[in-house]
Automatic annotation (TrEMBL):
It is an enzyme of class 4 (lyase). Binds 1 divalent metal cation per subunit. Can use either Co(2+) or Zn(2+). Catalyzes the conversion of 3-deoxy-D-arabino-heptulosonate 7-phosphate (DAHP) to dehydroquinate (DHQ). Pathway: Metabolic intermediate biosynthesis; chorismate biosynthesis; chorismate from D-erythrose 4-phosphate and phosphoenolpyruvate: step 2/7. Residues 59-171 form the 3-dehydroquinate synthase N-terminal domain. Its main location: cytoplasm. This is 3-dehydroquinate synthase. It comes from Sulfurospirillum halorespirans DSM 13726. Its EC number is 4.2.3.4. NAD(+) binds at residues 63-68, 97-101, 121-122, 134, 143, 161-164. Its cofactor is Zn(2+); Co(2+); NAD(+).
Length: 348
């Protein structure tokens, strides 16, 4: 099965997302696999037997969102220099979204840009992070605030890797699937309500559907000038939660689940989403044991942090909201009081 990402730009080439068992790949260039300790222990040897290259190198980084930073980026770049990778060399991001985002970013700046391939091993990375070329790292100010748009040459999604994924990580991926269904596809949302993703065939269907939605959005708007921002539904809130809790309490997908609830509270206040629709979305999130509540310490501080969001410009914040189930709207003129009241309502 293939899904194509078609880009109307001279700087980015089209590529395919291959959703099938990974076959042997042969490269006539130097290749460096970038992975982390967890993925290496579980799957590295099986990947290495399927990659043939002029020279094959491997870099194993520490595991965790808290390592998605300059230090790790520097480790990747230094390894590129140590192995004398050249402009024809290829990096392979082998892991979840953290490895994918950092490796993609390193590829985009090493010698002004080299190719990279995504081999995502988490559900979240298969359905979302590996597709679309958003790369980057976090810093003290917030999440993904430093990065680039740099598309992979190809994405290989092999569901066999998901067999070792812990339940919590699986659910985090489901949160991004639900995000796409709520904002883009009512029929898909209804299908999710009646099909359990713990079933292997259902999961394969949902992976294919989510990648198709994402590829379609990215094909229309590679660098988030418009519709791509809808993929950020829930994220304005989620990124603040992740940063405030130092990337140790919630997985990205879990924070997105809470962020979806916050965005929905706002959408309900604005008459865009009914109470019944809000409850249906909550029920689907809770079916996968995703968190739907976060105790905001200080509403003012929480609100102020929205201004670091990349969707904020000229002192206004753009909120991505569901318009019914299967629809979306972008709003940048919502009074602060309305936002704060919606967040208070959710707590009540
Ligand atoms: N670029 C994008 O478009 C985009 C989209 C969504 C999320 N993201 C980013 O992706 C990151 C979240 O990605 P994630 O949820 O994959 O987190 P992650 O990369 O931290 O992986 C989650 C955990 O699962 C482990 N793991 C990976 N594969 C495994 C496997 N097959 N079996 C067992 N364990 C495995 C990892 O070692 C890690 O501990 C965040 O940094 C987020 O900002 C980026
Ligand atoms: O691909 C996109 O576009 C997304 O927004 C996907 C999100 O799931 C992802 O978490 C993204 O990294 C968040 O956007 P960011 O621009 O704030 O990093
Ligand atoms: Zn996300």
């Amino acid at each position: 099965m293939h899904v194509n990402v078609v880009l109307n730009k001279t700087t980015s080439k089209d590529y395919s997302v291959i959703i099938d068992p990974l076959e042997k790949r042969v490269f006539d260039t130097k290749v460096m696999i970038v992975t982390n300790t967890t993925v290496a222990a579980l799957h590295l040897s099986s990947l290495q037997t399927r990659i043939e290259a002029k020279e094959l190198h491997t870099l194993i980084l520490p595991d965790g969102e808290m390592y998605k930073n300059f230090e790790s980026l520097n480790l990747i770049l230094n390894a590129c220099f140590e192995h004398r990778l050249d402009r024809k060399s290829i990096l392979i991001a082998f892991g979840g979204g953290v490895i994918g985002d950092m490796t993609g970013f390193a590829a985009s700046i090493y010698q002004r840009g080299i190719d990279f391939i995504q081999i995502p091993t988490t559900l979240l990375a298969q359905v979302d992070a590996s597709v679309g070329g958003k790369t980057g790292i976090n810093n003290d100010y917030g999440k993904n605030l430093i990065g680039s748009f740099w598309q992979p040459r190809a994405v290989y999604c092999d569901s066999a890797f998901l067999k070792t994924l812990p339940k919590r990580e699986f659910a985090a991926g489901v949160a991004e699937i639900i995000k796409m269904a709520v904002t883009f596809d009512k029929a898909f949302f209804e299908w999710l309500e009646s099909h359990d993703l713990f079933d292997e065939d259902n999961l394969k269907m949902a992976i294919h559907k989510s990648i198709s939605i994402k590829a379609d959005v990215v094909s229309q708007d590679e660098t988030e000038q418009g519709i791509r921002a809808v993929l950020n539904y829930g994220h304005t809130f989620a990124h603040v939660i992740e940063n405030q809790t130092h990337y140790t309490t919630y997985l990205h997908g879990e924070a997105v689940a809470i962020g979806i609830m916050m965005a929905n509270a706002l959408a309900q206040k604005l008459g865009l989403l009914s109470h019944e629709e809000m409850l249906r979305i909550q029920a689907l999130l809770e079916h996968y044991a995703l968190p739907t509540h976060y105790n905001i310490d200080d509403l003012e501080t929480f609100y102020d942090a929205f201004f670091l969001d990349k969707k904020s410009a000229n002192d206004t914040i753009t909120f991505i909201l569901a318009k019914g189930i299967g629809g979306h709207v972008m709003r940048n003129n919502i009074p602060k009081e309305t936002v704060l009241e919606a967040l208070k309502d959710l707590h009540a």
